[in-house]
Amino acid sequence: MSLFRALYVSVRVWLTLIAFVLLFITAYLFPVLFPFVKLALAVFVALCLFDGIMLFRKPVERTAFFARRELPERMSNGDENPVTVYLENRYPFQTQVEIIDEIPFQFQKRDVLFTATLKPHETKALRYELRPTKRGEYNFGAVNVYVMTALQLLKRRYQFSQDKTVAVFPSYLQMRQYELLAISNRLSEIGIKKVRRIGRSMEFEQVRPYSRGDDVRTINWKATARRSDLMVNAFQDEKSQAIYCLIDKGRVMKSPFEGLSLLDYAINASLVLSNIALLKQDRAGLLTFSDRIGQLVTAERRPGHLQKILEVLYRQKTRFLESDYEALYANIRQHIRQRSLLLLFTNFETVNALHRQLPYLRRMAREHLLIVVFFENTELKNLLNNPASTTEEIYQKTIAEKFYYEKKQIVKELQQYGIQTILTAPQELTADTVNKYLELKARGMI
To answer: What is the tens place of the pLDDT at every residue in 48-59?
Structure first.
């Protein structure tokens, strides 16, 4: 690195030079001050030379300063992902540093600037977080470090080539969160409701001793008489039921909410639901569609199956055409022959839009348990909650009420034909979807 590339004059230097120019003008007007101006200039030049010698002298190590960036192997879409920059000061004196990290252009951030103070031979870690909102590949550039002494007259730039490409996958962090809470029976902490089981749609597992809190209706009286101790029948959920997530990739799923598209919310929820289904010993599958059928992952439960679903979800993109529900129904009839739970992630804004697809939805519902998952318009909901004072605001609120009413009409019309529905806000999609799955499983409807 040449001196001209490494040497950057700080703003403080320019301000000092401007001050000296003003001093010279003053000295020209008042000659008696000229010796003091020359002395001040000589001191300033000496300090700059001393600062430069301290920064650019040849160190014992190959470089007098070192930095590196640490990234996860892949990032989780829609979540805060940690990034760590490690700094090592090899100078024998305390340094002031400015760090500019070249992050991918997708984040649209130009203020990733950090400052730190490092003691002689000190190592420090700076940690910050990035929230991607699109799946795909993100390219990180170099780490630029500007080092200053205590005088802070000059800066020396160190550039460390840390080029790396990181893939942003569907929200596996959210999936792990739900998985850990499901294992520890703490799903209620994130909005998952406990559902009372109706009827007996469970498989017999074993006879075991009674424990406090067991349902007295499960007491096995014959085993109790033989053992002279209370014994109960233990049941487990029916297993190996097929759960399919049907993801609409048409233009209705392109709408954004908090940086993520509705398609990405559906993809994240599908990944979580597939993992929960596998934990419940069910089989998870996937089908994507738009104006044509996308990819089909047959419902299975085998090692590596969740990773296969994750890889397929990673590659999905929105298409800007209307989705073909006739082709969807034909494909389901051809490839999904066993009665299954179908969760259709889509979006209907009007009743007319529903009526165009309703015949195919009804046919699917006759052969499978169909749940139509679509989204509330949260902006309209906020508009309805705000009072209207002007004529324009009254007009806008009236239109908003019309669209809000149509959403409710869509729910009622689907329920008339025995089709289950989930009308939810995007940020609540995952919890509401898992709730519905657990409810239907507890009621024995799958």
So the answer is: 888 888 888 776
User: Predicted confidence band at 101 (pLDDT cuts at 50, 70, 90)?
Assistant: very high
CA distance 40 to 20: 8
Asked if residue 189 has pLDDT above 80, the reply is: no
Q: Is 324 helix (H, G, I), strand (E, B) or coil?
A: coil
- Burial code (b: 16+ CB inside 10 Å, e: under 16) for 394-429 equals eebbeebeeebebbeebbebbeeeebbbbbbebebb
Q: Considering the entire predicted model, what is its pTM? A: 0.79
Both structure tokens of 133: 């909102």
Q: pLDDT value at position 184?
A: 56
Query: What's the rounded Cα separation, in Å, for the pair 387 and 52?
Result: 64
- Other beta carbons less than 10 A from residue 445's beta carbon: 12
Distance separating alpha carbons of residues 326 and 347, to the nearest angstrom: 17
pLDDT digits (tens, 9 = 90+) for 231-259: 887 665 556 789 999 999 999 999 888 88
311 SS3 class:
helix
Contact 423, 404 (CB under 8 A): no
Radius of gyration (Cα) for the chain, nearest Å?
32
Mean pLDDT of 137-144: 94
Q: How is residue 81 written in tokens?
A: 């992902």
Residue 7 per-residue DSSP state: E
Helix-, strand-, coil-residue percentages of the chain, each rounded to 5 = 40, 30, 30
Show the 3-state SS of 52-77: HHHHHCCCCCCCCEEEEEECCCEEEC
**Residues ≥6 apart with Cβ < 8 Å to 360:** 325, 326, 328, 329
Q: Count Cα neighbours of 274 within 13 Å in the Cβ-side half-sphere.
A: 32
Q: Which of 301, 311, 367, 378 is nearest to 339 (CA)?
A: 367
Q: How many CB atoms lie within 10 A of CB 160?
A: 15
Distance CA 416, CA 43 (A): 89
